[in-house]
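Lecture 7, part B: from sequences to assemblies.

Below are the input chains for today's worked example.
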Amino acid sequence: AQSVTQLGSHVSVSEGALVLLRCNYSSSVPPYLFWYVQYPNQGLQLLLKYTTGATLVKGINGFEAEFKKSETSFHLTKPSAHMSDAAEYFCAVSVAYKYIFGTGTRLKVLA
Amino acid sequence: GAGVSQSPSNKVTEKGKDVELRCDPISGHTALYWYRQSLGQGLEFLIYFQGNSAPDKSGLPSDRFSAERTGGSVSTLTIQRTQQEDSAVYLCASRGGTVDNSPLHFGNGTRLTVT
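Predicted structure of the full complex, as structure tokens:
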């Protein structure tokens, strides 16, 4: 069975600091992996996705994620946090037509 | 272009009443999903439609929940005899094509409050 674990339901960083949001997955077959962002009172917006090929994936708003098969991880990073990055972030895995989401990490950016 | 549209954006209802939530997917998207997002929790899969195939209803939490998709486009999620635990944000998403590496496109959700 496929599953996604996001470590840390809340993460706080200072403006300009590195953002690191953790995601580990479990899948019996090669997974397709996604990161989504949710701003207040909005739906989820795609940040980036991993399908096959290059393990370092670049997304929108300066975010990127690295697929590490040996660690079953797909952590999301951004070199320098901006106040506008404050939101909730979800990692997801898809196999066949099923999309399994993690419980989310709420990112707070401190001025 | 137009994204996924959900209505109403907010719904307050009394316990025991029925509610209908509507989703207009992106034009041409053949796959449509409903998810439920409760406070502090992730997204809970409810139901999946793909073209004219029989829907996957395995996520519906009880027989009070049902959904239909007419003409392969608009979908309605119906909750009968609402309970307080049904209070949540209901998200609809659509996807183009049939490959599972395509991302889902989400609407802004309907926030349901059962009093």
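Note for the exam: The mean pLDDT of chain B is 93. Keep this in mind when comparing with the next example.
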